[in-house]
């Protein structure tokens, strides 16, 4: 069996597994494409077409005009939020493109990531989301009783949605059930303690449910021109948000039948105490979200800091400078810049820091007021919901702009190819993609690679042999197995790049 054929399968396998892991965790199409191209380019392959869609990564390689194209497609699984695994995928990519690990070692590492145990116990993740809900209630001025109720309701709805997802029930119904739980708990609290502002419980539950849907990646795809992926992601987010609306609306109709009316009271005036409360609640919301999404422990403090800054900025701008839409956009811009800068410093995904930082900006109260007003005045309710949509778009646009400017500044300092620096760009074209994806600095002690003979060997094989070989190599070998796809790994780089896993004279 030609060594370079095995190497080609190994390189594609590594690139596609990393791309799948990033896409599953919500990374933008530009980031997934750039990361796959980093791996492909640093392995000595050119003219490889990378296509990233909503749930699929495909690679196609044509050695020359007379060869059979080599194409592989890998479909992703259901969406998850595990930023520890996302960080692991990016770390493997960084080590591989810098030449600190060989192709075989990178394959072993990337295959082991999906089998790793969660970074935190499952109960601790539920507790993180529950605490996030309680902090959201505190940010709206809830009393101790309201905060505790919101904490219990948030934990219950997250556990219920997880159970429904494990039983393969569509997530739309899980979101609807979560919204219904929030209203039911608020109605019970109102019945037991009428003096409490029980509507805050519903708002907190909406924020918890929306936290997983605040897909910066989908809006980044739309803004930067990756329209195919963006359209599917935005439709998914829209449908799941409609699920929340259906659940909350059903609960409100039931409350009206019981003669109950729970509304959000006016916000308290700006004082030093309210500013401190916004900062503390923002930090706790970010911390709870970080734990619930299995963010590495070294990033927890940074996540809380970014979220706290976001909460303070939007609070001050809303009260003294702009309306809520522009205030949210400015705060999201700050989050985008901080996320990029902090991500490179702590070696963590910028996506995780952005997702945690925008949680205090989620327009949960506006969504609730819009749903509450629909039964009385459809026009006013629709205006509130439209305003909430404006805020959501402003958050995404501000965060993407902050990312874009921060990455451009880092690129001038020679950090454009750093694995933890996101790539925010329009769909790549061949002359540009190498500058966008490959790092400028490589290890000096890595061995120089000779030109690969892969093109000649690919041309010599008939399509039937390639088909059978692909079926054989697609079977995952056990971790560390010598005979697996990574066991014969050679590697190459383009433009005189250096790699540490140079093929031996025998391989050539």
From TrEMBL:
Keywords on record: Cell membrane, Membrane, Transmembrane, Transmembrane helix
Domain Threonine/serine exporter-like N-terminal: 13-252
Segments crossing the lipid bilayer: 144-165, 172-193, 199-217, 238-264, 270-292, 299-318, 324-343, 350-368, 388-406
UniProt biased composition (Basic and acidic residues): 496-508
Stretch list, region Disordered: 431-508
Ranges of Basic residues composition bias in the record: 431-445
Topological relation to the membrane, as annotated: Multi-pass membrane protein
Main subcellular localisation: membrane
Bias type Gly residues, positions: 481-490
Protein name, as recorded: Threonine/serine exporter family protein
Organism, as annotated: Brachybacterium kimchii
């Amino acid at each position: 069996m030609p060594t370079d054929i095995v190497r080609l399968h190994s390189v594609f396998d590594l690139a596609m597994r990393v791309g799948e892991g990033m896409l599953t965790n919500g990374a933008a199409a530009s980031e997934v494409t750039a990361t796959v191209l980093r791996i492909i380019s640093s392995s000595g392959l050119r003219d490889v077409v990378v296509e990233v869609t909503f749930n699929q990564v495909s690679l196609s390689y044509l050695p020359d005009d007379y060869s059979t194209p080599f194409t592989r497609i890998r479909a992703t699984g259901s969406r998850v939020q595990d930023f520890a695994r996302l960080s692991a995928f990016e770390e493997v990519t960084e080590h591989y493109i810098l030449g600190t690990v060989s192709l075989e070692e990178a394959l072993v590492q990337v295959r082991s990531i999906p089998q790793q145990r969660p970074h935190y116990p499952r109960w601790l993740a539920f507790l993180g989301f529950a605490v996030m809900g309680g902090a959201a209630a505190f940010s709206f001025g809830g009393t101790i009783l309201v905060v505790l109720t919101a904490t219990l309701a948030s934990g219950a709805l997250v556990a219920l949605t997880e159970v429904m997802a494990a039983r393969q029930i569509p997530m739309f119904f899980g979101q609807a059930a979560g919204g219904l739980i929030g209203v039911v708990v608020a109605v019970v609290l109102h019945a037991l303690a009428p003096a409490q502002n029980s509507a805050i419980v519903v708002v907190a539950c909406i924020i918890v449910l929306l936290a997983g849907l605040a897909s910066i990646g989908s809006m980044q795809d739309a803004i930067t021109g990756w329209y195919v992926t963006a359209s599917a992601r935005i439709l998914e987010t829209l449908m799941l948000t409609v699920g929340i609306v259906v659940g909350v609306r059903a609960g409100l109709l039931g409350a009206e039948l019981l003669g109950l009316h729970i509304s959000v009271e006016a916000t308290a005036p700006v004082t030093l105490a309210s500013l401190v409360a916004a900062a503390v609640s923002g930090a706790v919301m970010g911390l709870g979200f970080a734990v619930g999404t299995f963010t590495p422990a070294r990033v927890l403090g940074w996540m809380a800091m970014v979220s706290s800054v976001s909460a303070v900025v939007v609070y001050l701008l809303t009260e003294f400078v702009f309306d809520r839409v522009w205030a949210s956009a400015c705060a999201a811009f700050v989050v985008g810049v901080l996320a990029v800068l902090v991500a490179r410093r702590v070696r963590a995904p910028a996506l995780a820091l952005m997702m945690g930082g925008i949680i205090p900006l989620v327009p949960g109260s506006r969504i609730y007021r819009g749903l509450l007003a629909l039964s009385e005045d459809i026009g006013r309710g629709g205006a509130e919901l439209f305003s909430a949509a404006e805020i959501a778009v402003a958050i995404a646009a501000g965060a993407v702009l902050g990312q874009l400017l921060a990455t451009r500044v880092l690129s001038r300092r020679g950090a454009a190819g750093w694995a933890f620096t996101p790539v925010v760009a329009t769909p790549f074209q061949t002359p540009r993609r190498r500058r966008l994806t490959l790092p400028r600095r490589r290890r000096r002690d890595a061995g120089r690679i000779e030109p690969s003979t892969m093109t000649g060997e690919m041309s010599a094989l008939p399509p039937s042999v390639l088909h059978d070989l692909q079926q054989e190599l697609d079977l995952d070998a056990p971790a560390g197995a010598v005979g697996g796809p990574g066991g014969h790994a050679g590697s190459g780089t383009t433009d005189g790049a250096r790699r540490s896993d140079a093929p031996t004279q025998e391989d050539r």
